[in-house]
Design brief:
This protein has 277 residues and is α/β, with parallel strands linked by helices. The protein has ten helices and seven strands.
Length: 277
C-alpha cells in the first residue's frame, strides 16, 4: 500500500532550488513512493524526473501548478496526471512563460531604480535553461552583495508588497481548471485555506479536489478543508509545496502525511476524465 506521498513539489524548471533528477534522488533516499512535479506554469521538468525515476520504484506523477487570479486574490490550481505533451496545454503554458519573462525584466528595472542593477545574461546562467523566477533573481542579488541571503531578498525586495515585486498577467482560476481538464488532468485547488469562499464557482468549472494536507496547516485547518471536500465530493489531496531550503526554509520534502487512499481516488478521477473525453 502506498503510504509516502508528496503531491506538491517544485524544481528548477520554475522556482525550485533543485533539478528534477535531484528531487527524484532525494525522494528515493527518503523512502517516498509517489511524488508529483508541479512547477509553476510549466511542465519543463517532468520528462527529466520521470526518466530519473525509471527502475527506482518511485512513481512520478506529471503535474503542474497554474498561477491564476480572481479579482485581487492569487489562486493556484494544481493539475495531476496531465498529458504534459498536450498541444493546447503547451500553447497556453508558453503564453504564461512569456509573461514570466516580462515580469522578470520588470523586476530588474525596479531593482535598478533601487541602485541594485543585475545582468540579464547572468540570470540566464543561474537559471540554467529554466524559466527565470524570483529565486534566480534573489540568488543574483546575493552574488552581487545587495543582500546576505535569498530569504532577505524576498523579505525586503521581492515578496508581495515589497519594492521589487511585480504582478504578472494570469488566467482566471476557472480557465486554469478547464485547461487542466482538457489535458486529461485532475484539477485541485492548492493551499485553499483563505480562498474557500470562491469554491462554488470553481466547482461549476470542474474542480476535483482540495489540497487538505499542507505544510503549515494545523490539524484543525486540515479538518476544516477535509469537511469541505467531503461535502462537495472532492478529493482531499496533500503535499509539502517543497521548493528547497533556501527558497522555503523549514519545509521538507515529504514532510506532510498524505493518506494512501488519495492515490486511488486521483487515479479513478483521471480515468473518468479520459473516458469522458
Amino acid at each position: 500500500m502506498i503510504s509516502r506521498i508528496d503531491l506538491h513539489i517544485h524544481s528548477t524548471a520554475s522556482d525550485g532550488e533543485y533539478a528534477p533528477a535531484e528531487i527524484v534522488e532525494m525522494a528515493c533516499s527518503l523512502g517516498l513512493e509517489v511524488i508529483a512535479i508541479t512547477d509553476h506554469d510549466t511542465v519543463g521538468g517532468i520528462d527529466e524526473a520521470m526518466e530519473a525515476a525509471q527502475r527506482s520504484g518511485l512513481e512520478v506523477i506529471p503535474g503542474v501548478e497554474i498561477n491564476a487570479k480572481s479579482k485581487d486574490q492569487s489562486i493556484h490550481i494544481l493539475g495531476y496526471y496531465i498529458d504534459h505533451r498536450n498541444e493546447s496545454l503547451l500553447a497556453e503554458l508558453t503564453k504564461l512563460c512569456h509573461s514570466r519573462e516580462w515580469r522578470a525584466r520588470r523586476v530588474l528595472e525596479e531593482l535598478a531604480a533601487l541602485r541594485m542593477p543585475l545582468k540579464w545574461d547572468r540570470l540566464l546562467e543561474i537559471a540554467g535553461g529554466s524559466l527565470i523566477g524570483r529565486p534566480h533573481i534573489a540568488e543574483a542579488m546575493v552574488e552581487q552583495g545587495y543582500v546576505s541571503t535569498i530569504r532577505e531578498a524576498f523579505d525586503d525586495y521581492l515578496g508581495r508588497g515589497r519594492p521589487g515585486y511585480v504582478q504578472r498577467p494570469r488566467l482566471a482560476p476557472e480557465e486554469a481548471i478547464e485547461l487542466i481538464s482538457s489535458a486529461g488532468g485532475v484539477p485541485v485547488l492548492a493551499h485553499p485555506l483563505g480562498v474557500l469562499p470562491i469554491l462554488p464557482g470553481l466547482l461549476s468549472a470542474g474542480l476535483a479536489g482540495l489540497e487538505t494536507y499542507y505544510s503549515g496547516y494545523s490539524v484543525e485547518d486540515s479538518r476544516v478543508i477535509a469537511s469541505e471536500a467531503r461535502r462537495h465530493g472532492l478529493i482531499a489531496t496533500g503535499g509539502s509545496d517543497y521548493h528547497g531550503p533556501s527558497v522555503t526554509p523549514g519545509i521538507g520534502l515529504g514532510q506532510v502525511s498524505v493518506p494512501a487512499v488519495v492515490m486511488k481516488e486521483l487515479r479513478a478521477r483521471h480515468l473518468a476524465l479520459i473516458n469522458k473525453g
